[in-house]
Recover the amino acids of this structure.
């Protein structure tokens, strides 16, 4: 209350004036509160009953403290603290900063009218009235500034709390927590569960810039291991999402029911471990399937391609490439030759070698094993 104290040093109300004004404090407080009710809509129903009585007492206390200040008997600190807490309380009651400042403006006008009406008849010299007015409005300005600071701080604190709850929800989702845990976490965060979530992996530094371009209900974490960030995008239109993500290293997992978002995240993580070139996991399902169990895939290759291991490495590699194209092109020699950039007769010769090595090459079971074994190429 430094400015008000400075003004108070220029004015010291005599005891007669102060006594007259104190006698009217209850009436003044009632008029201030009633004017706020009448003129500031958000307070129309907020200042009645027990709450109204509490506010009236608070206004009387503030005005009494003001009279102490005007008579040179107070420093003003306590009133500022109370005003700060009032501002915080207004956030908890759901009222805006605009409503709070409007209430102060109305209160200042009515308080000055009542104080002036009591001070002048009590003998306040006309020369002092202007100083009294300046002190009144300086005092109320500083009270309103303290309340505004409390209001802003409470909003910021609530924003931080909300952000923490959203981050906690995102971590629960990635960890695959139970539906009951996830529902409780979503309720704490005030987050409406969507039908589906799509996980997006990208560098941590790019996570929040990307998040700001997406659905406001998107969840974001930017502190995962290996400087990784993740977005959990609700009800994503996949083609639109891929166009929105300008970060070339982003990996987009599949859409999954929101309580199974961990499955989308796990697939995106595995896709990134396979290749840094993967962007849309839906375009790489065969590779993801064949790489699901690395040991099993290695065992399958070792067993299915065992006949090739008896050959020189270069020969084995050429025959495996030919076998792969032959299986993929269903034995159409010209297409196999075009894929390998060789003459069809070369394909015919190599296939004769392969049939000697794999006598049961035409059996469905052998075709299945070999197709899987050569599906990702050589180790």
């Amino acid at each position: 209350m430094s400015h008000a104290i400075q003004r108070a040093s220029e004015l010291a109300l005599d005891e007669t004036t102060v006594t007259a004004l104190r006698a009217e404090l209850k009436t003044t407080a009632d008029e201030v509160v009633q004017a706020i009710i009448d003129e500031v809509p958000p307070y129309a129903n907020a200042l009645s009953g027990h709450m109204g009585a509490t506010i009236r007492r608070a206004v009387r206390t503030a005005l009494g403290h003001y009279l102490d200040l005007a008579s040179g008997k107070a420093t003003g600190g306590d009133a500022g603290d109370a005003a700060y807490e009032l501002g915080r309380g207004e956030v908890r009651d759901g009222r805006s900063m605009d409503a709070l400042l409007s209430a102060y403006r109305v209160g200042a006008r009515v308080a000055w009218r009542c104080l002036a009406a009591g001070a002048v008849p009590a003998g306040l010299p006309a020369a002092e009235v202007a100083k009294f007015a300046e002190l009144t409005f300086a005092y109320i300005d500083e009270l309103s500034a303290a309340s505004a600071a409390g209001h802003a701080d409470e909003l910021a604190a609530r924003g931080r709390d909300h952000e923490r709850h959203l981050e906690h929800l995102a971590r629960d989702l990635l960890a695959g927590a139970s539906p009951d845990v996830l529902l409780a976490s979503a309720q704490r965060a005030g987050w409406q569960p969507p039908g589906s979530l799509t996980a997006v992996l990208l560098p941590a530094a790019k996570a929040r810039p990307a998040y700001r371009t997406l659905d406001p209900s998107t969840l974001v974490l930017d502190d995962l291991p290996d400087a990784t960030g993740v977005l959990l995008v609700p009800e994503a239109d996949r083609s639109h999402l891929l166009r929105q993500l300008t970060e070339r290293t982003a990996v987009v997992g599949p859409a999954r029911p929101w309580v199974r978002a961990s499955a989308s995240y796990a697939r995106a993580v595995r896709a990134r471990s396979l290749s840094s070139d993967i962007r849309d996991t839906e375009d790489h399902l065969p590779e993801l399937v064949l790489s699901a169990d690395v040991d099993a895939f290695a065992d399958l290759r070792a067993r299915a391609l065992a006949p090739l291991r008896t050959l020189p490495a270069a020969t084995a590699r050429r025959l495996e490439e030919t076998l792969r194209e032959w299986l993929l092109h269903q034995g159409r020699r010209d297409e196999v030759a075009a894929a390998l950039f060789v003459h069809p007769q070369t394909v015919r010769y190599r296939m004769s070698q392969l049939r000697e090595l794999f006598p049961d090459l035409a059996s469905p079971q052998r075709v299945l094993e070999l197709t899987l074994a050569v599906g990702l190429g050589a180790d």
About this structure: The first helix runs from residue 2 to 8.
